[in-house]
Design a protein that fits this description.
Length: 274
């Protein structure tokens, strides 16, 4: 049987979870990553036809975010390739409130292929699998001054929604917004992690320029630094504070709270210092 669902970013935060869930359901799945067979690389479109052959549905993620400038041209090329390969449906993971990401959404919507857009709030897992992990391990979170609280969303909830969307046509031609059950500040999130770990974690806010200098000192790519500046200076302005009911409506259960995330993550040991 041909692989029917292609999961791009299958080693990433959402893609890995989506692929695992599909495989556990014994759904034919092709892993879209540089380690996949065949391999997939956003910067090497020469074998995209091979990657897409036999595929009916694609879960699209773009690293580090569809809001970065180069995402538009890459996703444009990919949707064109998907149409040529007669893919039936595209599911795009987008960012909530990211105006620059909406151009990528429109590429998918206007592709002539069945589509679903998933707009997600900030991932809870940014504290355990991404940019803030090292800070938690060092017991001090230093971030730019945050203008508003954020209804952080659990990546496991995103993955559950993505699987439902990929497997059910009733979700086609819809845009979903995925948020956690409550908007909380970064300081509150840090405190909840500290409580779950039963150890103090300091919280400090600095200017965005100071933070950008720190990121550059870690030799992060310029596009990643620019993205974080964009998120903190523009997206975190209160536009995403409202709570969405889409997770509950799709899954029939409440979204995971930050407290629940902190407690379950603490049990994994990922925040334990040596």
């Amino acid at each position: 049987m041909s692989n029917k669902i292609l999961v791009l970013g299958s080693t990433g935060k959402t893609g890995r979870r989506v692929a695992e869930r599909l495989q556990n359901l014994q759904i034919p799945t092709r892993l879209g990553s540089r380690k996949g067979q065949p391999s997939f690389n956003w910067d090497e479109p020469g074998n995209w036809e091979e990657v897409l052959t036999g595929i009916e549905t694609v879960y699209i993620t773009f690293q580090p975010d569809v809001a970065i400038p180069r995402a538009f041209e890459k996703i444009k090329l990919f949707t064109e390739a998907a149409k040529l390969c007669k893919v039936n449906k595209l599911v795009l993971l987008s960012g909530r409130g990211e105006d620059t990401a909406q151009a990528c959404e429109q590429l998918v919507i206007q592709s002539g292929i069945e589509w679903t857009i998933i707009r997600a709030n900030w991932f809870m897992q940014n504290f355990s699998e991404s940019i803030f992990l090292e800070s938690i391990l060092n017991n001090e979170l230093v971030i730019p001054t945050a203008k508003s609280p954020e209804p952080f969303v659990d990546v496991d909830d995103i993955a559950d929604v993505a699987v439902a969307v990929l497997m059910n046509k009733q979700h086609s031609y819809k845009t979903y917004v995925l948020s956690g059950p409550a908007a909380i500040s970064f300081e509150s999130a840090t405190a909840q992690i500290a409580t779950a770990l039963n150890r103090p974690i300091a919280y400090t806010e600095i200017s965005i320029n100071e933070y950008a200098d720190i990121l550059k000192s870690y030799q992060l790519p310029d596009e990643t630094v620019d993205l974080i500046q964009y998120l903190f200076t523009e997206v975190l302005d209160g536009r995403n504070e409202t709570i969405s009911n889409d997770i509950e409506n799709i899954l029939g259960r409440k979204p995971t709270s930050f407290k629940e995330y902190a407690l379950k993550t603490a049990k994994t040991g990922i925040w334990e210092t040596q």
